[in-house]
What we know:
Elements: H1 2-47, H2 56-70, E1 75-78, E2 85-89, E3 94-99, E4 102-106, E5 111-115, H3 118-165
Amino acid sequence: MVKNIVQVLIVNLNLFYYLWIINVMKEYKHAFRRWIQKMYIDSVRTMDYERGTRTKYELDCLAICKKLIDKPDTQLLMTPLSNKKYIHNPENSIFITIEGNTVNVINHKYSYTVVIQDKSKEEIVNHFNDVLENQRLKMEEEITSNIKHSLKNILYTLTWWASFLC
Length: 166
């Protein structure tokens, strides 16, 4: 009987010991995974060149582009093959080209070439595309409104000629 109690106690101690080891391993496993995750995040942050701050020139260039794009007398052009963007404002005599991460601001007195980050480039290009799309939609509305009006005139003249001939 005592032998059975001792065996049960030993089995229970072994079970407790195994459960304790499993619990400790889980803690170490979590700590190890957390350490791996921290190492990965640190390495991504050190390799990420886009997290850098924008320079003063880049911010000025971004503001100039946005202001010129928003002006109503500015001409916006885009080349589909080379994906260049052109902004021309004849009133201020400023011409801007955007190609890749390079923005050229040209006037009859000066010419600046500013290299911008991808984030700034996407910001300028998205604003450019939005304004260009709005201009296209306005032009399309004008064209379709003229077509509807002229179709009504054609229908009126046809009915007038039909009533005149009968």
